[in-house]
Design a protein that fits this description.
Mean pLDDT: 92
Number of domains: 1
Distance between the termini: 32 Å
Radius of gyration: 17 Å
Low-confidence stretches: 1-24
CATH class: Alpha Beta
CATH superfamily: Alpha/Beta hydrolase fold, catalytic domain
Number of strands: 8
Strand content: 15-25%
Oligomer: single chain
Order of helices and strands: HEEEHEHHEHEEHEHH
Helix content: 25-40%
CATH architecture: 3-Layer(aba) Sandwich
Largest sheet: 8 strands, mixed
Length: 268
């Protein structure tokens, strides 16, 4: 009950704070550069966004949904760069691997998750690209992800990567590699749809228990009645087309974005 109350309280507080979200962030011009990089096994291609005026020496990785590095992940990365953060939209599949149909997306995702060691190497390679940029402090890296990318970001924190913060939006929470005390180095923000069948309640409960036992500083926003992909405009259309339980929710999108901004300001 106590956790449920905290989540409600936090959601209400965020609603009240929503007008404050952008006050300290005037949009800055951003340069955009396609970066080819690789692991020993995989050719990768990401997009780097650099702000004209930086507000922080930290850097942000944005990890894509199961479709691959599409326009949505780049859009979010650009939004964060416009606030003054050096941001890298990463590629976790391989150069040119982009799915339009959920069937192909699922194949890409499963192939990627089947090789956890290579997944870590891809993530490591992305961190290297980001931290090699002038003025990015390697001790101040945040990873944010959507859907598949949320699960990856959280998974990398559990694996002990030195991340100042991790934020997951409608990402999977279940794991076979539960974090122990000291594994997760930074803070964690989770934004979850309360009616998302891809993230069952038992996984949410297990995640909360895991975070408490590992003594992690975390926040969970659990939006009642909200489905999968709630931050993605047009998710309803795609959901109907392919018979998937997903849908955009303006309120959850706005509140989770404001929570992310406050989270980033806090950790960076």
């Amino acid at each position: 009950m106590r956790l449920h109350f905290l989540v409600i309280l936090l959601t209400l507080t965020l609603g009240a704070c929503s007008s404050m979200g952008h006050k300290h962030h005037h949009k800055t011009n951003v340069t955009q550069e396609v970066i080819n990089y690789s692991t020993t096994n995989t050719e990768l291609q990401g997009v780097l966004f650099k702000p004209e005026k930086k507000v922080s020496k930290g850097g942000i990785l944005v990890v894509h949904e199961w479709y691959g590095l599409n326009a949505y992940a780049k859009k979010r990365a650009k939004m964060l760069a416009e606030m003054g953060y050096t941001t890298f939209a990463v590629d976790m599949y391989g150069k040119g691997k982009l799915a339009k149909h959920p069937k192909n997306a699922k194949k890409f995702m499963q192939a990627s998750l089947k090789d956890p060691k290579e997944l870590k190497r891809k993530f490591e390679a992305a961190i290297k690209v980001l931290t090699e940029q002038g003025g990015v402090d390697k001790n101040k890296v945040v990873s944010i992800g959507y859907c598949f990318g949320g699960g990856v970001s959280l998974g990398m924190a559990r694996a002990g990567f030195d991340l100042a913060g991790v934020a997951s939006f409608h990402g999977s929470l279940g794991t076979d590699n539960r974090a122990k005390k000291g594994d997760i180095k930074g803070k964690v923000l989770i934004a979850n749809g309360g009616a998302d069948p891809m993230v069952p309640t038992k996984d949410v409960t297990a995640f909360v228990k895991e975070m408490h036992e590992a003594e992690v500083d975390f926040k969970l926003l659990n939006f009642k009645g909200v489905q999968h992909s709630f931050t993605v405009e047009g998710a309803d259309k795609k959901g109907k087309k392919y018979g998937l339980p997903m849908g955009y929710n303006k309120r959850a999108d706005k509140q989770s974005w404001h929570a992310l901004i406050m989270f980033i300001v806090d950790v960076l």
